[in-house]
Amino acid sequence: MALIDVRLTAVAPVVSVKPVTLEAPGRGTDLRVRISAPVTGGELPVVLFSHGYGSSLDGYGPLADFWAAHGFVVIQPTHLDSRTVGLPPDDPRTPRLWRIRVEDMRRVLDHLDVLEAAVPGLGGRLDRSRIAAAGHSFGGQTVGNLLGLRVLDPMTGQEEDDLSDARITAGLLLATAGRGGADLTPFAADNFPFLNPSFARMTTPALVVVGDRDDSPLTHRGPDWMTDAYTLSPGDKSLLTLFGAEHSLGGIPGYEARETTDEDPARVALLQRVTWAYLRHALGLDDTGWTAAREALSGAGDDGAAARARLESRGPGGAPVRRAVSGEPPRRRASGAR
């Protein structure tokens, strides 16, 4: 199994507490949250994780547990679209689910004191100046909103409110939907009108992760659709393409989760290391892991990682600063193909 040597910090035991309940007036039900943290260390950076449609605070252990074991506090809210909530399709909140998700994430930030106190031994150990947000699928759009993405009204084309949050200084967008409009299938346009983002104001630094076999039924464009968060957004961005990966990117929702269709522990291990290194880089902790990841994915190393993924980046001005081309290019499908 080819792994990237990103000089991981020592593995620490992890403590997780769930559910911690935050009062949420007007939401219809209080917000349930899971917090995972290493039992040792101080000045711990924070990652807020937004799950994909239907999942919950119990998902995404392959990422949440790994990040926590290597020095992050990971906070996972359960959004209203979770199967564990059981919201009926005709619930009046359904058209606003995308916005309520963003409010959930902001509520977590507003109540870090409560969440910190809920975990034995965590008090006084958070670094509130270093906060990132990560999300998969629908959760990727939720995180995008916090980074500056604007949802467009599908009827008028006007931007919805700015929901960005300056407390979040870096993002991870995993298998995130691209443009709406004509790029959507009729089913997606009818059922998910909020899948109509503009990335033009998404300026916060982010790593976008895509699978080159993520052929979503929501778009005509094929796997290329998921790259829009990188190609259409300004500023400091990186794009990691995982060869052979479908929507679950090897199994990040959990190997036992119904969403996992492309189980691949080696792919998940690579993704764990690259995302960990990126978070440390983007939050100003340490650049050595990110530098090592970029070198490995350029083919400079001999660990075989470059045959599994490609990494490209550009600087704050939008100009490419490096393109690490290796392995096979992502599979493209003709416009109009499902």
Keywords:
disordered C terminus; 10-stranded mixed β-sheet; about 350 residues; single chain; alpha/beta; two-stranded antiparallel sheet
C-alpha geometry: globular
How much is the average pLDDT?
90
Number of strands: 12
Low-pLDDT ranges: 322-338
Distance between the termini: 32 Å
Structural class: alpha/beta
% residues in beta strands: 15-25%
Strand order of the largest sheet: 1-2-4-3-5-7-9-10-11-12
Which percent range fits the helix content?
Answer: 10-25%
Major β-sheet profile: 10 strands, mixed
Secondary-structure element string: EEEHEHHEHEEHEEHEHHEE
Rg, rounded, reads 19 Å
The number of helical runs is 8
Tell me what the structure shows.
- The protein is α/β, with parallel strands linked by helices.
- Helix content is 23%, strand content 21%.
- The strands form 2 sheets. The chain has a 10-stranded mixed β-sheet, sandwiched between helices. Strands 6-8 form a two-stranded antiparallel ribbon.
- Helix 7 (265-282) crosses helix 8 (288-297).
- The radius of gyration is 19 Å and the shape is globular.
